[in-house]
Each structure stands twice: as C-alpha cells, then as structure tokens.
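sorry for the late reply, my laptop died twice this morning and i had to redo everyting from scratch. anyway the thing you sent over, i finally got around to it. pasting the sequence first so we're on the same page, its 488 residues, then the predicted structure underneath. double check i copied it right bc i was rushing
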Amino acid sequence: MALINIGSTKQLFVDDYLIESMTNTRQVMNPAQKVECNPIMEAEGPDENWLSGQVTFDVKDQIFKMRYSTASYKGHRGPDGTVIIDGPDDYTPRMMRLAVSDDGIHWEKPALGLVEHEGSKKNNIIPPESSKMHNFFEDLHESDPAKRYKGLIRTGTTETPGMQFDLFYSPDGFTWTPYEGNPVIDTAPKIGRWGPTHFMGWDPIREVYAAHMENCLHRHCPLGRRLIGRAESPDMIHWSEPETIIMPDERDNPDTEFYAMPAIIYEGLYVGMLWIFQTTNTCHYPEIVFSRDGIHYPRQYRQPFIERGATGQFDSVSIYSQAPIIHNNHMYTFYHATNWRSPETLVELGDKAKTAQGLAITPLDGFVSVDGCKGVAVDVRPDHPWGEQYSQLVTRAFSFTGRQLHLNLFGALQQWGASPCDVRVEILAPNHEPLPGFTFGDADPITGGGQTQVVSWNGESDLSDLAGKAIKLRFYFNNAKLYSFQFK
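ok and here's the structure:
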C-alpha cells in the first residue's frame, strides 16, 4: 500500500501534493470568464446606484436564489471641503428582495405575496425579519428539517467594544426562529470587533462549522493591516477564538490587505476567494487560494481570479466575490462590484456611479491546469521509440480504488495551433519503471478534450488488478490543459 491513498477522490493539479516532477510544463491559474450579459442584475428604481446580492443554489428546489438589496448612495462636502457619506440624505436603503434563476444568468422576480407594499402583496419583497439574514446557508449536514437553513445576524453598534452574532433557524429561508441562548458569539470580552465575516457552513474535512473573518479588529491588529482568521464550532453555538491563517507577506505590495475570504470544500480541497484590498488604489479583487487542511494556504497564484473591468464599467474598481457554486459541470462565481469606492469618486462620477451583480464561470475543475505545448524540447530516455516531443508530469506514488482512469482536460489550444491534442498516460511502479502493458507504446492517444476522457492501453481500460497497489502516473501531453484525474 502506498503512503498516499487517494481512493476514488478526484485529484486536481492546484498544488504539488501529488506532483513529483514536471518537464516543459507549469501550473497555470485560469481566471474565471465573465458572462457576456454582465451585469446579470442591476438596480432599477429611481436614483438607485447600488445593488448587492447573495446567490445560493437551493439543492431541494434545484434553482438559483438571489437575495438582493438596492440603495441610493450620495455624498456631500463637509465644512472643510472633504467629501463624506454620513448625512441623512447620503444613503437611502431599499427593501430586501428575491430573484430566482434556472441558469444563474437570466433572473425572474417572483410574486412572493409575503409583504404588502404600496397596497399590494404582488411583489418579491422578503419579510423584514428575514431580510437581515446576510450570513445564512442551507445546511445539508442538518437532520432536523426545521433547521434546514441557518443564519446569523450581527448585532451591536460601532460604539460598542465588540460585536455579537445571533443564531436563527429556518425550514424555508423566510420564517426564522431565534436560538434561545443568543448571542452565540460575543467578541467584546476578549478581542474586540471582527471585520467582514463569512460563515461557510459545515466543513466535512475538519468536521466542524467554520467562519472566516477579517481577524484584525478592523485594522487594529499589531501589524496594522487586515488579516484573515478562522473560527470553528461543533454546533454553530460554541465557537473557538479566531486563529489568524492568512496574512500579507514579502511578495505582496506594501499596500496589500485582506478584506474577507468566502470559501467552499471541493474534492477534498478548501477553495477560497481571498479579497485583496489595495489601500493605495482603493480597489478590491479576488485571488484564488487552496488548502489541504483549512489552515495553511500557500497562495501559489497571485493574479486576480476575476479581472476588474475597464474604466467606467460596473466592475472597474472593486469586485466582491462569493465562493464558487458547482452547477451543471461548471463553477459559477457570483460577485457584486462597483466602479467607485471612495466618496470623492462617487461624487465625481455622479449619475455614472454604479454597483451591480456579476457572474464569472470556470470549467469544471478548471481553476488551475498544467499546460502542454507541442514542439518544445523534452529530456527523455534514449530508448524511447517515438519522435514527437511532449510535456510531462509524473505523480508521486499512491494507491487507488476503481476500475478506470478518467481525465478532465481541454484540448486544441488555439494559441498553440489548431492541431488536435495528444495525451497519453504511462503507469509506473514506485521505482519509476513502466509497468508491462501500460507503457507509452501501449497507451492509446486521447485527441479530444472532455470532462470524462477514459484512458486506455491497447484498447483496454480495466485497471482492477492494480487497485490498492502503489503506482505512479506519467502524463505525456501536447496542445492540452490537464485539469484533473480520477479513478472510477
């Protein structure tokens, strides 16, 4: 048995956990691609220039749901000429509403019949007691249907030394019952205030509920910069003290801080959207980060996962992304974004100031790929019988369960020519020797992309005899992006 047993879990190439060596290839972070019809939701009321929404995919109803609120932001100049946003006419909030969608792109506003407004209940307004629930999630770990949804409301004021969170339960996401022992979190006695906080729900790896927050008392930590912390709970009631898990390092610009980090568990990995806040340019964008244990995040990829838009577009200044949602063999990252952040910019833009909801999509498993290019010289054994040159990746030794090896890859990259991709897999013993029947010469070439490409050797794909034994894989590939592999 190998030291690493991957079972039948899908393996992504986001880190070096299973990678022993790479030749003429590298790991590439693939930015999410914005949908053409962005923004997918805009404020519609008179004088509204702000829309912020939280999108979830309702597993039971099999539909996207967006709780969104709109507002009117205006600024005014104080006695010293400084632009500020704190007057009674500077911020006018609207009611929280609900929109639904089958595809996450085209949205409808159902008549909920829950709140009377202007003499009618034919609207999509959410009841006031539910509209405060900004931190809520569908808890698939919960067995009690009355607690299918869990939500938290932050209480307290900016004048208090800390903050509190009250826990609520709901069977439908509209009617909420408070936990009798509220508050479940009270930061005042020890650590002061948390910054922006995201409750990720049940963490099946560490078997706890988890929250990520700006763990710096809102810029009052010893480093004077915003950091990311993690707190855990076995029951959403009793919470640990937050532990700082991510902070800026020497590779970051001096003005880099971390504002928040929504995260999900995907295929045994923690996938986080780390909100980069550049204080000099006063802009935000998400950086994708990965972890195996929920504590250590190497931050291997420092580019924006979602690029800010061009000047004047709704997402040209700040992008506040949610954690990705896996749907229909794609990964959907919803975000709200703005073309202004400072009061000065708000006043300068006037009627052109805008905040709206956007969407960017990634192919399944496609956060990171290893890219292979034909025609690059490769160091190979002199006894290899082929003349083509390949990029290569060799895994560490592992054992598996299953009968077939499936690959998820994208082929025929246009920037490398229109020729078909060529992917072949060799199976090695732990000492690196190719196994008879599974050598490069035995491997059937894969010449097209797809999410479930079955690997075969001399027309056979059954690997039952190798299940449970220690092996390595050597990938040879040209004109292709490898996303993941899995034994099924």
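The domain at 5-30+369-487 is CATH 2.60.120 (Jelly Rolls).
thats about all i looked at so far, will dig more tmrw
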